[in-house]
Specification:
about 525 residues; 17 helices; single chain; alpha+beta; five-stranded mixed beta sheet; disordered C terminus; about 20% strand; globular
């Protein structure tokens, strides 16, 4: 069940902020209201605490509203914690007993907004000049003003085709300074709930990063609202939204939150800013650069590095030919990887890419700040946009995505293999051992033999759990994770021929055993 840390602002705000994991699925540093907020408020605002608590409760309940089924006497029901409530008494009882912490957070947010509104109104009385558009937008407490009119659509129209065949998933980001990310967060929550979208939206003072799924009508309306919003209309265009087949089913819920970074690199945006990135190359320009890179005769003297700045489990099932794919588990390890292997980039031209382009924005800025590269380029729109234009280009294999689809397929190439038998295989599953969240590649034949864990350690834990179901206190302990260096060190010869040190599990009479295997990803033969 998600936890709520809403920062609602204003009398009519009908939204709350959901806490969620980031695109690396591990981040938990959500910006929360100050625990000492009440002590910091003036006396007049403290007196409004009962009102703020009632309002917080009402707003929380309001966000759970869903249309009632046709022919029902009531116009609305409520859905919360995967339960459907048909009357106010039951939803009120549920919220009061199950979401007390969220209501306390939201009450603090309402009090905070009352204090801000009071200070703002005082300052406005002494000003003669009109407030800039952005401040007008962000200080307007009524998010409904910035929601689309869906009265011309029936509920069925809005949710029809939400399945993987008829729905759609949007992937986008926008770097631009936001003065009030909490307001944007509340607006995004209300917008997505109105359109029955699920997914993840991450907001910070440096911008917004989202991936949402729903019906094609809902995603179309979402894009239209984003492009007409005063905060983003001058910074985004329709081409900035990457689309793929999917829908609301690709995400278990809607998660929206305010963080320090819209993609977690682990370095404050004040130190490494998105405003100083590498040179953006269109998919066509990037394709030509990769073609030139692969055609170079003497790879040892190449002045170019094709750098994949994604995580190892992403590049494992799909990558550009001849790339350097760091064996890192999180993007927050990327800066340390650059620092540890800085000599590799000395005097080099770097061609950098990631899934949708967002990691390259600050990743390229970090590499540029080191001052060792000849030049740093990045693929605009990421692999997603490249594959739309060059499905049979230099990118081979699948494109990993951070939702329940795990991967998108644009070509028939399989570049990875089953961890147990080595057969070509590229469809991820979660490790079958409880409490382990590692992804595993295991082919159908090995799955039928019961090999469904990520490593020998987890496979053994799974067997013990099957024999003694009461032993449920196992900690996450993965042999495959412990073996991998947190920050790998590359050798100069690996720049063009990266090596995967991922162990393969060989199946013997006594079960699986670890067999160290080095798999090379050579350049294609020249025709």
């Amino acid at each position: 069940m998600p936890s709520f840390t809403s920062l609602d602002q204003g009398d009519d705000l009908e939204a709350c902020v959901l806490r969620f994991s980031d695109l690396d699925l591990k981040e938990t540093r959500l910006i929360n209201p100050s625990s000492s907020l009440k002590a910091e408020l003036d006396v007049s605002t403290k007196k409004k605490y009962p009102y703020a608590k009632k309002k917080a409760f009402a707003l929380f309940v309001k966000t759970k509203e869903v249309p009632a089924r046709p022919l029902e006497c009531k116009e609305k029901w409520w859905r919360c914690c995967q339960q459907l409530f048909r009357d106010q008494i039951s939803i009120h009882r549920h919220v009061a007993t199950q979401h007390a912490d969220e209501i306390r957070h939201q009450t603090a947010s309402v009090l905070q907004q009352l204090a801000v509104t009071l200070n703002t109104s005082k300052s406005l009385k002494s000003e003669d000049n009109r407030i800039p558009l952005q401040e007008d937008f962000s200080c307007n407490p009524d998010v409904s003003v910035w929601l689309p009119d869906i009265s011309c659509f029936s509920p069925d129209e809005l949710i029809s085709g939400q399945g993987s065949d008829g729905g759609e998933v949007l992937l986008y980001y926008c770097y631009r300074d936001l003065e009030d990310p909490h307001w944007v967060c509340a607006w995004q929550t209300a917008l997505c709930q109105l359109l029955s979208l699920t997914g993840k939206v991450r907001i910070a003072t440096e911008g917004i990063n989202g991936t949402v799924g729903g019906s094609k009508l809902a995603t179309r309306l979402y894009v239209e609202v984003m492009l007409s919003c005063p905060l983003f209309k001058d910074y985004m265009c329709k081409d900035d939204f990457k689309t793929s087949k999917g829908g609301a089913c690709c995400f278990p819920e809607l998660r929206v939150g305010v963080f320090e970074e819209i993609v977690p690199m682990g370095i404050s945006p004040n130190k490494i800013s998105y405003k100083k990135p590498g040179i953006h190359l269109s998919p066509g320009e990037f394709h030509k650069e990769v073609e030139k890179f692969l055609s170079q005769a003497n790879e040892e003297q190449s002045d170019t590095i094709l750098l994949d700045c994604r995580n190892f489990y992403e590049s494992k099932i799909g990558r550009f030919q001849g790339c350097l794919a760091p064996d890192i588990r999180k993007f927050s390890y990327f800066p340390s990887y650059i620092d540890k292997n800085l000599e590799l980039f000395q005097g080099k031209k770097v061609l950098m890419y990631c899934t949708g382009g967002i990691r390259c924005e600050r990743g390229s800025a970090y590499l540029k700040a080191k001052g060792v590269c000849q030049e740093v380029f990045q693929l605009k729109g990421g692999i997603h946009k490249y594959l739309e234009e060059f499905p049979d280009g230099f990118y081979k294999g699948k494109l990993f995505v951070f939702d329940e689809r795990y991967a998108l397929s644009y070509n028939s190439d399989t570049v990875s293999e089953c961890s147990y038998c080595g057969a070509p295989w590229d469809q991820y599953k979660l490790c079958s051992t409880p409490q382990c969240r590692q992804l595993i590649l295991t082919c159908p034949a090995c799955q039928r033999q019961g090999f469904t864990a990520c490593c020998v350690t987890c496979q053994d834990k799974g067997r013990r759990l099957a024999l003694s179901p009461t032993q449920n206190s196992f900690k996450e302990e993965c042999e495959c994770t412990a073996r991998r260096p947190r920050i790998p060190s590359e050798l100069p010869r690996q720049v063009r021929l990266p090596v995967s040190l991922e162990p393969r599990l060989d199946i013997g009479e006594d079960g699986p055993r670890v067999c160290e295997q080095k798999q090379h990803f050579p350049r294609p033969a020249q025709s």
